[in-house]
């Protein structure tokens, strides 16, 4: 177990180093940071002084290591657009994205598992067939088009929900959250559904496929022959074995929710890091773009590491392989 954890952590660190290099390269090949910091009226002496102060005259490997050291210390530079430290700007927007991603992930996992189980158990029923047909919307339509349709239906025509913004927030432990107020929660519904619909569809179809395969296995037929009830078979045996491979895909989908939040936050003008990144691209705000890339990379790597560890703990076959000296 310890060797498995060390190896996975080592792999995660290598991925972060690669993401960090791509993030660092943005400073070298996208625009001129000196011009952004000094302006067009700067003299050659001003540029030379700033180059020396920022370490831009050092060799590339040295600059890269210095960049990583500053990033580990939370120093990502100053935003070209707003003139504030990038870490401070991102932290002010991060709670909005995380709470939206958390609600979207909950909806995707909860309804994805429930619908997946139902459509597997009642696969020939009318409701199950309707759910499967409707789920094609989640995998066929672009995210922005789903968001626009939901705005048209529930905000413009029916007037039930807000069409943009975060609504009112309430502070808990110094963090402002929209989900703590009714107005803020209503503002989260449309973007959360838009963001989580694609992931919910994937999880539902995966759960359905895995559960159908498990229900056709020999030990399920043996359980039926023993006279076990359908409830015991479906939820006591089949579901447990179904969820083992689902964990990996679900974990990766939770990471992609934060990445896909760029589109959703733009459609609904949700003030999170996704919208911040879009604005940074428009203004070529390289420090913010670079920090966002590192943030998303770190989130993906962390989630993937947690999923690997959970997979090892939950699946007894992996532990048996390790105990017997096997590898994978």
Short summary of the structure?
With 328 residues, this protein is mainly α.
Commentary on this structure:
The chain has a domain at 90-270: MetI-like fold (Orthogonal Bundle), CATH 1.10.3720.10. The protein is mainly alpha-helical and 328 residues long. The chain is globular, with a radius of gyration of 24 Å. Strands 1-2 form a two-stranded antiparallel sheet. The two termini are 13 Å apart. The longest helix is centred in the C-terminal third of the chain and has 39 residues, at 230-268. A hairpin with a 2-residue loop joins strand 1 (170-172) and strand 2 (175-177). It has 13 helices and 2 strands. The mean pLDDT is 78. It has helices at residues 2-29, 33-38, 44-54, 60-72, 86-121, 126-140, 143-157, 182-215, 218-225, 230-268, 273-282, 286-314, 316-323; strands at residues 170-172, 175-177.
Helix segment tally: 13
Query: How does the major sheet shape up?
Result: 2 strands, antiparallel
Question: Topology as H/E string?
Answer: HHHHHHHEEHHHHHH
Helix content: over 70%
Q: Can you give the mean pLDDT?
A: 78
What is the 3D shape? globular
Low-confidence stretches: none
CATH fold type of the domain at 90-270: MetI-like fold
Strand order across the largest sheet? 1-2
Structural class based on helices, strands and sheet pairing: mainly alpha
Strand content: under 5%
- Please give the radius of gyration in angstroms: 24 Å
In the CATH hierarchy, what is the architecture of the domain at 90-270 at level 2? Orthogonal Bundle
Itemize the secondary structure elements and their pairings.
Blueprint: H1 2-29, H2 33-38, H3 44-54, H4 60-72, H5 86-121, H6 126-140, H7 143-157, E1 170-172, E2 175-177, H8 182-215, H9 218-225, H10 230-268, H11 273-282, H12 286-314, H13 316-323
Antiparallel strand pairs: 1-2
